[in-house]
Amino acid sequence: MTRKTQNTQGDAVSRAAQRRGAEHAPSAQAEKSVSQASGAWQIARKTAASILNGTENAVYSPACIHEALRLIRLGASGATAAELDALLGKHTESGDWLGLAREKKWAYEDYLARLASGVWLDEHAKPAGAFLDACAQQAVPVTRADLRAPAAGAEITRRISEQTEGLLAPKIALSPLTLACVASALYLKDAWKEKFPKGATERKPFYCDGNAMDADFMVSHELELPFADTELGTLVGYPLSHGAMMVMLLPAEGLSLAQILENGSAIDALREFKRTSANDDDNDEWFARLHQLHQDGYDQDEIERLLEPTPVELHLPKFTCETTVQDMATALQRAGFVSANSPALVPMMSEPLINGRGKMR
């Protein structure tokens, strides 16, 4: 990607701030969304280095992991509860905490997003009433079933597929020892806010680890996009139909993926970039960012610089990536969930059952 000579957009940002009122608080929904998503960012920060080790292409969803862990927390006890509290943070998510169901605001008519999650307990489990009440309050479905049955995993797959309108159908393999299964699946179908021009695909070399291979690139010239040069590399955001954004980080020359993920550095940079990047100044999320910058003590010149779009020539390779994280427990243990392999889940299943037969997936 190439950064063009920067055009000054400060006056436009100032006018937007004045029009909306810089000291006016963001809407409750925007504030709630920012607050509740903080736990997912924390999961990303603490697991990225373990899962994205830089040796091969990989894709995973910290939001899905966060959703599953928060469901486990509802039924956790003892050290497990304390570990999850430290890992997930103090925010309490509820309802549509990712803000996926804003159908009326999304500009893409075929927009679809689902976070399908639930808890499946063995039919012999004896969950505490407090656990069931907590799940009911947060609209978390709890299903009792014979998890030893050969078709148990297929039934969970079917339920996830049903909740995502057939778009996701992960294969769930349960062992005869399984007492509980917590599942979380995230699907997003959206479109670019500014479409790539027709016929703008170019075949050109893609360089990786010193080698080159031919790949198809979507090319767009002179777009004004959120853009930042950092010590870790170059960040650019490409807005989706409304509100969401795909953020790309091109590591600085000489830095490996492992180096920029070390100590959560890249995740911190991505989060700060998203928080300060320009978007539609008529939506609450943009205004929430503007308000937060004022709260953080940025002066007007700094805010204008941070919120200013930059003319960018973008060459984005087309790609498909599908991976399976083989050892999630180890990644979570490194992140602080020490008891990931043998969690204490007394409220979810009862102590006698855990001692008699037990495994959690």
Give the CATH level 1 class of the largest domain.
Mainly Beta
Helix content: 25-40%
Overall pLDDT: 77
**Rg over CA atoms:** 22 Å
Keywords:
disordered N terminus, 3-stranded mixed β-sheet, globular, Antithrombin, Chain I, domain 2, Alpha-1-antitrypsin, domain 1, 2 domains, alpha+beta
Write structural notes for this entry:
With 361 residues, the protein is an alpha+beta fold. The protein folds into 2 domains: 2-37 and 192-317, Alpha-1-antitrypsin, domain 1, CATH 2.30.39; 62-97 and 112-189 and 326-356, Antithrombin, Chain I, domain 2 (2-Layer Sandwich), CATH 3.30.497. It has 14 helices and 10 strands. The radius of gyration is 22 Å and the shape is globular. The two termini are 42 Å apart. Residues 2-35 and 352-358 have low confidence and may be disordered.
Write the layout of secondary structure elements.
Elements: E1 2-3, H1 10-20, H2 28-36, H3 38-51, H4 62-74, H5 78-88, E2 112-122, H6 129-137, E3 142-145, H7 152-163, E4 180-189, E5 201-208, E6 211-225, E7 227-229, E8 233-239, E9 245-251, H8 257-261, H9 265-276, H10 284-295, H11 300-306, E10 310-317, H12 328-335, H13 346-349, H14 351-356
Parallel strand pairs: 2-3
Antiparallel strand pairs: 1-10, 2-4, 5-6, 6-10, 7-8, 8-9
